[in-house]
Amino acid sequence: MESLQLTRVLPCKLSTNISRKGCSFRLSRQLGFGHLLRRSFPNGNLTVVRSEKIGNGGGFGGLTEGSTSNAVEDEKEEEKERHGLTQGIDRDDSLSVTDLHSIPPGDHEVIDSKGDVATDSKGKDEETEEEKLETRVTYNIVFVTAEAAPYSKTGGLGDVCGSLPIALAGRGHRVMVVSPRYLNGTPADKKFEGAFHVDQRIELHCFGGEQEIAFFHEYRKGVDWVFVDHPSYHRPGNPYGDSRGAFGDNQFRFTLLCHAACEAPLVLPLGGYTYGEKCIFLVNDWHAGLVPVLLASKYRACGVYKDARSILVIHNLAHQGVEPAASYRNLGLPSEWYGTLEWVFPTWARTHALDTGEAVNILKGAIVTADRILTVSKGYALEITTAEGGYGLNELLSSRKSVLNGIVNGIDVAEWDPCSDEHIAFHYSANDLSGKVQCKTSLQKELGLPIRPKCPMIGFIGRLDYQKGIDLIRWAIPELMEDDVQFVMLGAEDPLYEEWMRSAEATYRDKFRGWVGFSVPISHRITAGCDILLMPSRFEPCGLNQLYAMRYAAVPVVHATGGLRDTVENFDTYGGGGSGEGTGYAVPTIPFLT
Question: Quick check: 351 pLDDT over 70?
Fold first, then answer.
């Protein structure tokens, strides 16, 4: 039976139905309750948390309703502690004191004769009112990702992999992030200036030969940022392609990343010593999907990484890393593991009558071999097990439901804070929204729009593709522009829609502005300046822009799908006692639009 820990003690009478049997408590300053019983706590709540310790007796250590004897005993213990000793107390089942023993000062864990009370020595001046819960078990965590902000970013994946590792490191874990070192000949290359070459080059066996790669390392905010360096990462464009489309060698580029990520914990002496074999790998999307396959097929077969575990994080199931079946031999995997990645397209999806539809699917291999599977929202975890949202993998994912969970993404509240955001002209808060109007007029001036503080401004930030519902915006713009509104868009990807944005700007000179490309400062200024943020996504695994909008006092108007449905609370005019309640508007998706 699990035991319990008492983290706060009240001076008032206890009123609780917690059974005495099998309960134990963490006592502040060894076994001294006196200083706690004489203090008053502001909230008057009794807080009980689970403990890993297992006990078989003990009860409340003599603290019963209306009892004051413990206070007297603990005052004596405090007095002894001041002289260098602390008194330990053993009790029988009736809670009577049966034995006393002296405990020397120092950082010792003390367990009474019943085995149910574990205590830690505390400093005399330690504050117990606001006791901080610390991580009790720490891990070596290795993130493997195609992008990580601020070094590389095209969307939410970069944001999450740039901020979550820092949060985990702050909880005491040792964290490494492995990502490519992209150099594209632009000022963005300066973001890698803080990373220094590690005197460690290795050769990876894949694609019919030995591929030599190098590592660069930067220690920032408690995280080891490791960058894999190879000529295939040095080219114009974003991490996945350029204006002509996706790079044709992406399978090669990200296969190198996966092999390098498996070697990095073993060979890189970061901070003087390696991470070793006992790691948790967090692999993000198909780009890192070969990692769990390599762990299972290559390393564990040789007795390496036997205690390592892998967690697959699906940010977007639509991208699966599918390539011709003949490319399997290039991946550096044993031939008998082909079935793990084997993929056969249905007849209707084949290109011609002689096409057998055979392919390799890297994300499928990761789903089969990962120890746990996560998506970035609970709603999306459900959607991907359906035929409509599973993109052909719904049956496989359904078979792994026991290890499939959804956790909503978070945001970096330090970077996205209207009180201190370095990218916006004026700051504001929930208590003083005057700066919000000033941010709008500043944005209007920057974009060359008429300065109209009372004119509703609608914003859109995202990729210009089918998933984001950009075609719905295109259809709606002519009618929308008949109203007294201004519309600002930021995005890139599809040349067709990029050209449409330029055309719409020329047509609606005083109402529409389209920024082709992506700019972090501009995205902050649009979020701060607009009144409404539009997200008509057909599907959205999580979405971060709606979270940014709510933090910046912009109203998110979204399709109720995936993480958007999980995070946007539909506004209820009559809620909150008639004053209104909610965070935005979540419009139900229409079947024919999906």
Answer: yes
